[in-house]
Amino acid sequence: MPTVHFTDAEGAVRDVQGNPGDSVMETAVRNGVPGIVAECGGSLSCATCHVFVREDCLAQLPPMEDMEDEMLYGTAVDREDNSRLSCQLRLTDEVELFVTTPETQV
Amino acid sequence: MGTRTAATEHAPAAQTAAGAAAQPDSTTRTGLLIIGASQSGVQLAVSLRALGFDEHITLLGDEDHRPYQRPALSKEFLQGTVESESLIFRSNDYWAEHNVDLVKGEYIVKIDKEADGSGVAHSSSGRQFPFKRLALTVGARARKLEIEGGDLDGVLYLRNADDALALKARVGDAQDVVVIGGGFIGLEAASSLQKMGKNVTVLEFGPRLVGRAVGEETAEYFLQAHRARGLDIRLNTSAKRFTARGAAGEKQTAVAGVELQDGTVLPAQIVLVGIGVIPNTQLAEQLGLTVDNGIVVDRFALASDGTTVAIGDCANMPNPVPGSAPGERIRLESVNNAIEHAKVAAYSLTGRREEYAGIPWFWSNQADLKLQIAGLCNGYDQTVLRRDEERGKFSVLYYRQGQVIAADCVNAPLDFMAVKNALAKGKNIPADAAADPATPLKTITTDS
Q1: Are B430 and B419 in contact (CB under 8 A)?
Q2: Count of alpha carbons within 13 Å of B27, Cβ hemisphere only?
Q3: Could you tell me if B305 and B289 are in contact, meaning their C-beta atoms sit under 8 angstroms apart?
């Protein structure tokens, strides 16, 4: 099963097992990971599911499309090179992802 | 410190949650009863737990589904690009761990309430739900089109999951669909159905699309964009009656067409009606709460009895936009409002007083048109148009006395984000500088 390790801005870690095909955002929200808001439910409209992806995990992620790229400029905490919107990150079978949630999403 | 949680979604929600939660005795009035397992109902429960509210919570809905997200029903869910499981808000484990008892399929018909705010709610099946505090997150229902043939099979609405399932079940056999109402829901569904290969006609009673939600320029942009994509949109057009299939004398039960006022008959195996919603105020009225286009609440989401909270689509509240005219009231139908209003109510229920203040925002995805709206444009005296034909971007900024108050942005998330952030921080984006679409709005935002 895919696993996502969420680290919050204070450093607390939460490991959540997800289902292949689900997004990182869905996995977080359904299990109540507090650092992800996701108001729009994954339709790429709100930029409140911002995560920082650990550098060594970036390569296995799908490439960023223009809309995600533009939305990332509007996140509550400024984007970094390793920023992604977690609604766009689909889990694959045995993936293990390490992400950090920003201090705030709104 | 790490906690491990598996996302399992097998056991029926009510069973799992009830097993873990301390079920209140049917005679003691403890805990909070949330009527409406909606976006705002879910958020209220979640926010209360985040604030440390430790009393029992019952989250009750009248549908036979676990609480789910509605926006995708007219879009991804209808088109089959997301599974129903993806729409579920929280796992069963989440509710169990947070001592929230989910109750599905119970329709509350009557509430007895004391002056202290406690009481008992009675469902149509005869069950009783005692409570110490009550929250109404009852939403709104689809406005019905009362014309001849309105009860024929195939005349559908799109408000909840069962509506969407009914529509999906019929789509395969239908070729012609008439959508009545050129608002968000009608245009989203029409775009989805067109993408699924249906021959779709949209009838709009008024002189333009999305009447009250956007300005003139945006409405015109959508009209042209949809027509360019092959959608048949007829403005100033209303249905006179629905015609039925089958020969005269036979029992006619299924819709066959829509007759317009001029006598034209459009073939339709499905008619989808999206002509707005009516807030659900029946319970509030029965409780003697003040009702006026929704359940009237104060800035703290409290109804007129001072103890019941009412939030989301069903609530008529003071306009939350900072600087609004005193006494100006509004009812908002949006995910953003459901969430933010719920947070305010959670504070009220835990003894804190936080006035509802915020910039409303909305979105609507129609075909490849991604509309994002920041703020409320009513009362504007100036607009600035930003258009990038080449990249398919379109934004309208609305101004009142030189101050930006709202923006409609199509495929222009940078504009949307810039205006949303400026409004949230009380800043301005001067109109003259905003007119150049090549200038990023973020770079010209000023301290007003």
Answers
A1: no
A2: 0
A3: yes
Residues A36, B324: Cα–Cα separation, whole Å: 30
A70 lies within 8 A of chain B by CB? yes
Nearest CA in chain B to A29: B90
State the pLDDT at residue B379. 92
Angstrom CA distances, B387 to B156, B396, B413, B423, B438, stand at 37, 9, 13, 21, 9
Q: What is the DSSP string of B158-184?
A: -SSHHHHHHHHHHHTT-SEEEEE--SH
Mark yes or no for CB contact A14/B3 under 8 Å: yes
| Spatial separation of the C-alpha atoms in residues B311 and B348, rounded to whole Å | 12
Mean pLDDT of chain B: 92
What kind of fold does domain A3-100 have according to CATH? Ubiquitin-like (UB roll) (3.10.20)
Hey, how many other C-beta atoms are within 10 angstroms of the C-beta on A54? 14
List CB contacts (< 8 A) between B46 and chain A. 32
DSSP string, chain A: --EEEEE-TT--EEEEE--TTSBHHHHHHHTT-TT---TTSSSSSS--SEEEEPGGGGGGSPPPPHHHHHHGGG-SSPP-TTEEEGGG-B--TT-EEEEE--S---
**How far apart, in whole angstroms, are the C-alpha atoms of residue B328 and residue B308?**
22
Contacts of A17 in chain B (CB under 8 A): 4-7
SS3 of residue B145 by DSSP: coil
- The verdict on a CB contact (< 8 Å) between B420 and A74 is yes
Task: Put the strands of the sheet holding B133-136 in their side by side order.
Answer: B100-103, B57-60, B32-35, B133-136, B309-310
- pLDDT digit string (tens) for A17-45? 999 999 999 999 999 998 999 999 898 99
Contacts of B414 (CB under 8 A, 6+ apart): A70, A73, A74, B440, B441, B442
Question: Does the pLDDT value for residue B26 go beyond 80?
Answer: no
Q: Which alpha helices (DSSP H) does B280-412 contain, by range? A: 282-286, 335-349
Question: Which residue, among B75, B86, B100, B423, would best test binding to A if mutated, counting the most A CBs under 10 Å from its CB?
Answer: B86
Number of other CB atoms surrounding residue B426 within 10 Å:
12
Question: Where do the structural domains in chain A lie, given as residue ranges?
Answer: 3-100
Q: Is B66 on the interface with A (CB under 8 A)?
A: no
Look at residue B12 in the predicted model and tell me its pLDDT: 36
pLDDT in tens, B206-215: 999 998 789 9
Assess whether pLDDT exceeds 80 at residue B250: no
Can you tell me the ipTM of this complex?
Answer: 0.92
Helices (H) and strands (E) in chain B, counts: 11, 27
Q: Coil, strand, or helix at residue B78?
A: helix
Q: What is the reported pTM?
A: 0.92
Left, alpha or beta for A11 (phi > 0: left; psi -120 to 50: alpha)? left
Rounded to whole angstroms, how far apart are CA atoms B286 and A40?
34
Q: What residue type is B202 in one-letter code?
A: V
